[in-house]
Amino acid sequence: MNEQPSLGFVGAGKVGTALARLWFQAGYVVRAVCSRDAAKANILAAQVSAAAVASPDAVIEAADLTLLTVPDDVIEGVAAGVSLASLAGKAVIHTSGARDAAALAALAARGALTGSLHPAFPFADAESALARLAGTTFAVEAEAPRLQAWLVALAQAVQGRVMVLPPGQKAVYHSALVLASNYTVTLYALAERLLEGIGADRETADAALNRLVEGTVENLREKGIPGALTGPLTRADAGTVRQHLRALRQIDPSVAEIYAALARLSLPMVSARGVSTERLERVLDKEV
Ligand SMILES: NC(=O)c1ccc[n+]([C@@H]2O[C@H](COP(=O)([O-])OP(=O)(O)OC[C@H]3O[C@@H](n4cnc5c(N)ncnc54)[C@H](OP(=O)(O)O)[C@@H]3O)[C@@H](O)[C@H]2O)c1
Fold first, then answer.
1. Is any atom of ligand 1 closer than 6 Å to the C-beta of 79?
2. Number of domains in the chain
3. Candidates 19, 35, 92: which one to mutate for ligand 1, based on the most atoms within 8 Å of Cβ?
4. Are residue 26 and residue 149 in the same domain, yes or no?
């Protein structure tokens, strides 16, 4: 194995396309690409001066390090379908946030080094990811020191940051990202529905919420936890919290429960700011 591995990609979708092109631009050699749709493999292969090949076997044969950038649910199936008898000297990883290296056990059993490299970035499409990926954290999962060093170098080659994950913690890691990213969208949608319910049109509601969320992210960046928390809890405005809960209960009791659960989870941050939570706790206990 060379110090800088040659790369291969199985899956020319959003993540495969963006990463292959970024690493190619950064000086890595991409040897081969395959995808379910040969036309997609051809397009990506041409962009990164690689060969478009017909099967994962051919990619693994050509490259030191193969990335399975396929949907989570097919990673194990693709790994199980590899028919090369020995994979000694080869490394194969996937880019799933939720799955761990065990999804590649069929390949590890034949001598491949296995692991995963998850870019914590929402790839809506390959083009926008190409322009915006710098600064992204890559979660690295690899037991073999050599593979781990390769994955760290790959992240750093695209101005990424690195989080090395202990074995067996992928589910915790990914659930943290889902909470912070996906469920921010869910809470936003809930807020949008409430504003539309009192007559705001979508554009007006979005304008209000977008700037608010942007300001919150800026506060998180600048002040972190608990400094970024603002609002009635941090002022110990128990009366306001009571009003909120009563108004929400009228609209949808389950939303009032979510509000109360989130408020309870926020109380340690309120305490850390030196604000008494006693009255707030009483209101939360009484109203929900
Ligand atoms: N999207 C994100 O935000 C994001 C972020 C971080 C990590 N990830 C992870 O990255 C991986 C890929 O996600 P993605 O968003 O790039 O998905 P995607 O855009 O749907 O691309 C997946 C690609 O895999 C190909 N494929 C599907 N089944 C295949 C098979 N059996 N053999 C060969 N190729 C096959 C598809 O083929 P064709 O197009 O050729 O039909 C498609 O190009 C997933 O593990 C995902 O969890 C995604």
1. no
2. 2
3. 35
4. yes
- The conformational region for residue 168 under phi > 0 = left, psi -120 to 50 = alpha, else beta, is left
- pTM of the predicted structure, to 2 decimals: 0.89
Average pLDDT on 49-73 reads 98
Q: Is the CB of 11 under 6 A from ligand 1?
A: yes
Residue 104 CA to ligand 1 centre (angstroms):
16
- Are 249 and 257 in contact by the 8 Å Cβ rule? The answer is no
CA atoms within 13 Å, Cβ hemisphere of 134 = 3
Q: Is the CB of 9 under 6 A from ligand 1?
A: no
Q: Tell whether ligand 1 has an atom less than 6 A from the beta carbon of residue 81.
A: no
Q: Which of 148, 168, 188 finishes a domain?
A: 168
Using one digit for the tens of pLDDT, what is the confidence trace for 106-138?
999 999 999 999 999 989 899 999 999 999 999
Structural domain including 87 reads 7-168
Cβ of residue 246 lying under 6 Å from some atom of ligand 1: no
Region 207-225: mean pLDDT is: 98
- Report CA-CA distances (Å) from 153 to 26, 148, 166, 168, 237: 11, 9, 18, 22, 49
Q: Quick one: which atom of ligand 1 is closest to the CA of 17?
A: 16
In this structure, are 154 and 209 located in the same domain?
no
User: Does the beta carbon of 66 lie inside 6 Å of ligand 1?
Assistant: no
CB-ligand 1 contact for 182 (6 Å cutoff): no
Same domain for 144 and 68, yes or no, is yes
Residue type, 57: D
Here the tokens at position 241 are: 């919290």
Tens of pLDDT, residue by residue over 68-107, are 999 999 999 999 999 999 999 999 999 999 999 999 999 9
- Give pLDDT tens digits for 23-54: 999 999 999 999 999 999 999 999 999 999 99
Same domain, 79 and 150: yes
